[in-house]
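Researcher: Quick one. two chains, 780 residues in total.
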Amino acid sequence: MSAAAVGAEERWARAALTGIVEPGDETTGRWLREHGPVELLRRLTATAPGAGEALSGAGEKRLAGCRNRADGVDVGRYLEAAAAVGGRLVCPGDEEWPSQLDDLGDARPVGLWVRGRPNLRMWALRSVAVVGARACTPYGAHMAAALGAGLAERGWVVASGAAYGVDGAAHRGVLAAGGATVAVLACGIDVVYPRGHAELIGRIAEQGLLVAELPPGSHPTPSRFVLRNRVIAALTRGTVVVEAEYRSGSLVTARSAQRLGRFTMGVPGPVTSGLSAGVHELLRGEGVLVTDAAEVVELVGEIGDLAPARRGPVLPKDLLDPVTVRVLEALPARAAADTRSVAREAGTTGDEALARLYELHSLGFVERRGDNWQLASSAVRAAHTRRGGA
Amino acid sequence: MSAAAVGAEERWARAALTGIVEPGDETTGRWLREHGPVELLRRLTATAPGAGEALSGAGEKRLAGCRNRADGVDVGRYLEAAAAVGGRLVCPGDEEWPSQLDDLGDARPVGLWVRGRPNLRMWALRSVAVVGARACTPYGAHMAAALGAGLAERGWVVASGAAYGVDGAAHRGVLAAGGATVAVLACGIDVVYPRGHAELIGRIAEQGLLVAELPPGSHPTPSRFVLRNRVIAALTRGTVVVEAEYRSGSLVTARSAQRLGRFTMGVPGPVTSGLSAGVHELLRGEGVLVTDAAEVVELVGEIGDLAPARRGPVLPKDLLDPVTVRVLEALPARAAADTRSVAREAGTTGDEALARLYELHSLGFVERRGDNWQLASSAVRAAHTRRGGA
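Model:
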């Protein structure tokens, strides 16, 4: 799918390290930066020569933990399990790597296991996180679904955590609107958690993207949920918290987003609801109150550096991959078309076409209008100019 | 009650002008500033000599309106009607005049008709407005009453407009907590509007204050409601909007407050409620989200210039009026006492004692702790110092 800019040895080492270092650990992140993945793996693998070499500022306990986990690492098994579900490892340096994750510094993921057709980097360009309480109220679920659908209708990709409550409602709202959604998991991309979301997670894998820092086969732990939140925050342009109690995990995501310079937003609710107390706390600080998707887009759509689409396509058409070009060319010149007819015209499936259309949207080639897609006016202008000049 | 610093002729003229100029009219306000009340009244009274003299920038229509109303003015009747309900006229320059109203510039009221025992200026020093929709939801009524009670319990005076819905709930919340409340009316202080609030307005007149720009006998009109709002905004340190539809009158109060440099606050609600839409609009702008009285006090209590109480009493005890001194001396030296026992000790009624206690609170002599009152620690210190020095 994506051109791999990272060599096989490094890729192998990063695959192994996803099973060895704890997500978000800045000390191992520093080692990785200092030594590179291949050398770090060598030093952490107890049985390898040179395993005793010093790693700067290594607590004995952390080192022992890494070496202990290194014993159990089986990269072949990871790759096999990933392949079995159509997954891949995306590494820093790959074309598909979302460069905004570099804002995490030494807490940047070693690599991301990704499952689904779309290009993660393209999708993440115009994405917003919608997160909130697992035990949400019907009001929270309603608002999450409405935001998900509204963002999808405006061509935005919605990221969340696939949990019960607000996360699930947001993903479902997007899917119901034929939109693009990314679930960032606290487990492996082949593990279904929570079990009750088996069908939802399956649909996201088909129509969207599943993303995980941990290797296939990994199960979630409480600390992994918290650390997963920083990836959601870093991946997106902003985080909307729908319902959250005081000191809840969703607020951790919101605060990570703030620290990373992303927008943090909150949907207010009744003061009499404990499930809105955390959101109100956020809104009394840096958070911006939002009541619908239009207000979210108004806010996050403003940043120029991540929003090249506003100024027209950022890539010449020649650099797009062939399937994406076919989808782009399937769009009528002056009218809008729905996903199904674009897919038919391009000779591909609906899910594939949708994945490409959101990529094209991120790149500024197309716009979404309700259920339909059309060429962006700037793209049409560019085409006319080229024709005029030829 | 209060020492009148304003001469009889000027007071008479201002009483007449409250029935002649339209509240908030900046042109007549300018005339008043340029000519003073006595001369302005002379020029506006059609039958008086010199009535034809020019008034700068006077539209014919405005002048005709004023002269028309001047024909119907009967100051004797105003004063009689005010006296019949125990009311008085408070003028700029009077000891009881709340000087923060001067922030209104040429839209400052000509005078205020006041009904009730307490000293308006003292009460307004530490006051907050709680306003909102007439057709509020049970949630809005609950929040207004809770805020009213909570502010009262923290020793703050609550101003509102005596309307149905949020206003009424706020006043009732205060009264139920034995607190201090001011109703700023869009009609005369002897007119009961709305009729359904006859009992409530009667209780406010007994235990709190009724305030009106218009003379006794005046009835409300839609424009008078809107213009009344600027008085509520100017009188208080901040305005809390509880429920408000888009473009509602409560938002007018909030915006007036903003323009006057007062705090504007809003209580969020469900996004799905049209009655919270106006509040959320406010909170997406300059408004600060508040969820309880403690958060309101935290915000409005910060301004030093209007909050001398934080630094201890601002007036020497000798300058207090005799009844207030009796109430102050009725407080035990090192313990707290409820209003009833303070009243008994001071040989006065409960309502009178309450009025004085809130004045003493505004001046920093006493503090309210739940249902009880005690000497402020700074006041105790000052007393000790005096004793030590004697």
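The interface with chain A takes residues 139, 142-143, 267-272, 276-277, 280, 283-284, 288-292, 295 of chain B (CB under 8 Å).
Researcher: Thanks, that's what I needed.
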